[in-house]
Amino acid sequence: MYVDLTYKVIDQESGDVLVAVEFPIGYVHGVNDILAPAVTEELEGKSVGDVIEVPIDCDQIYGSRDEELVFTDYIENVPEEYREIGITIHTENEKGEPRGFIVTRMDEKTLTVDGNNPLSGRKVIFKLEILNVRGATDEEIEAGGPIGVAPDIDEALTVPLQ
Fold first, then answer.
1. 132 shares a domain with 52
2. How many whole angstroms separate alpha carbon 142 and alpha carbon 139?
3. Which neighbouring-strand residues pair with 54?
4. Domain presence at residue 35
5. Dihedral through CA 123, CA 160, CA 31, CA 43, nearest 10?
6. Exposed e or buried b per residue across 49-67, where buried means at least 16 C-beta atoms within 10 angstroms of its C-beta
7. What is the distance between the terminal CA atoms of the chain, rounded to a whole angstrom?
8. pLDDT tens-digit profile of 77-130?
């Protein structure tokens, strides 16, 4: 089944919304793994309009925080295009493996980047709302998600996910 949903990631400790995706994302249930297995399991059997909340320990998905992936340098050593909090700097390690570092702090003299996933070390709640469920096309099944134009959510079916 093809599913459109929105979600929020809420920090269990503070109650803060860490991520909010309000534009529908689409996926083919049972074909791809864009969602954590615990979330996919909770979506099983649900229908349009259902809202689910799934507690997740992000260390199980992204690993524990590694403070060796946090670096601070003098700001003059950092190219100007990276001098903005929230910017991701894409690099490769000595093995050629890609790694992203997010600029997390900056002052007049220094800039700090963090190579950890922003959710590492957190316990969160994934809150999802199902907007649309319909039979997936062969092309969507092959791709594991939407093809071309997003489906019309006004034509949502009320069939359960299976």
1. yes
2. 5
3. 126
4. yes
5. 10
6. ebebebebebeeeeeebee
7. 7
8. 999 999 999 999 998 888 988 989 999 999 999 999 999 998 898 999 999 999
Q: Which residue's entry shows tokens 């003059």?
A: 76
> Do both 55 and 125 map to the same domain?
yes
Is there a domain that residue 161 lies in? no
Question: Which residue type sits at 148?
Answer: G
Measured distance CA(70)–CA(118) in Å, rounded? 12
Confidence tier at 148 by pLDDT (50, 70, 90): low
Q: Which residue has the tokens 């969160």?
A: 124
Phi, then psi, of 105 in degrees rounded to 5: -145, 150
Q: What is the average per-residue pLDDT within 66-72?
A: 94
Six token digits for residue 159 = 């069939």
pLDDT of residue 153: 40
Q: What is the DSSP string of 12-81?
A: TTT--EEEEEEEEEEEETTT--SS-HHHHHHHTT--TT-EEEEEEEHHHHH----GGGEEEEEGGGS-GG
